[in-house]
Amino acid sequence: MHRCALWSLPFLVLPLTSLADPLPSWNDSASKTAILDFVAAVTDPTSDSYVPEPDRIAVFDNDGTLWSEQPLYFQLAYALDMVRQKAEADPAILTSDALRAAAAGDIAALRETGREGMLEVVSLSHANITPEAFRASVHGWLTTTEHPTTGLTYAEMTYQPMVELLRYLRDEDFSTYIVSGGTLDFMRAIAEEAYGIPPAQVIGSIVNLSYSVEDGVPTLTKQPGLFFVDRTGDKPVGIMNHIGQRPIFAAGNSDADFEMVDWVTAGEGARFGMFIHHTDAERETAYDRGSPIGALDVVLDEAEGRGWVLVDMAKDWSRVWSATP
Questions:
Q1: Total structural domains within the chain
Q2: What is the domain extent for residue 125?
Q3: Which of 137, 143, 231, 298 is 20 to 30 Å apart from 76, CA to CA?
């Protein structure tokens, strides 16, 4: 009986990883092709676009880019819950319009108090606690509290296509970082579990900390106020202070990420800029221009001319949530 020499067929000697789709939740579209082509070019030593491993750095916004941000930023939803719980135990803490609005869950009234009102809410809900205790509180809240519209826990509302992208980049020897307006300890509570990103690779707004010795034990305690706000033009500042060099890949979802992506893609050599466009009203929420959260306006006008990829959530993703198919 003639035996077929299967080993002689070229496609069978390829490693299995080369046959697998690294982005299975992405539809075959121009966005997916652009990502794959870029990664192939910068990781091929024979390519003119080759980038050595230490310089393969990718930065990602979090809210609206790696997980949902509607109808509220998750950190704000947490802060409101904490203020409400504290107020139930001691109503006397509600000393301002902002805190009363937060305890009542009145977002419109809270917005009217402006940035100072928001800082009051963050200070009351985030201060006078050690970073370790705060992270434990946040992790417990994210993994047990249900989102008001999806029924999923907040921790389950990461975007599966973006989780795949993070994993794919790391498989190709990229270092992946979160760069968000949220505070460091809030994201560090879940980043490694949700995205495979360790705490040291999270860049965000920084809450004031104080050092003291309590009963002989050196202790750090979170204090009211913010030491650094990681938004808009401060994102490149945070990246340089934390990483010390310009990344080659940046992804965001709103005009608040414009400066980050603009700075990253302005560097020499191969560069990649990407924005998530929330077009899927059925599976998530459709929003862009004029949205009070995650507005995408300037980017829509500028992306094509700057060579940035606009990911159409409805068309480019076959799946949205990591927790559900």
A1: 2
A2: 74-129
A3: 298
Does one domain contain both 288 and 312?
Answer: yes
User: Computed from CA positions of residues 82, 84, 87, 89, in that sequence, does the dihedral angle turn out positive or negative?
Assistant: negative
For residues 235 and 105, membership in a common domain is answered with: no
On whether both 91 and 36 belong to a single domain, the answer is no
Alpha-carbon span 99 to 207, nearest angstrom: 19
Tell me the pLDDT tens digit for each residue of 218-239.
Answer: 999 999 988 888 888 999 999 9
Check if the beta carbon of residue 118 is closer than 8 Å to that of residue 126.
no
Using pLDDT thresholds of 50, 70 and 90, give the confidence band for residue 13. very low
SS3 content of the chain, % helix, strand, coil (to 5): 45, 20, 35
Classify residue 78: in a domain, yes or no: yes
* Per-residue pLDDT reduced to its tens digit, 251-297: 999 999 999 999 999 999 999 999 999 999 999 999 999 999 999 99
Say whether both 159 and 285 belong to one domain.
yes
Q: Say how far apart CA 196 and CA 66 lie, in whole Å.
A: 12
Non-local (6+) Cβ contacts of 319 within 8 A are 25, 160, 161, 325
In whole angstroms, give the CA distance from residue 313 to residue 102: 32
Same domain, residue pair 288 and 304 = yes
Nearest to 59 by CA among 206, 282, 241, 274: 274
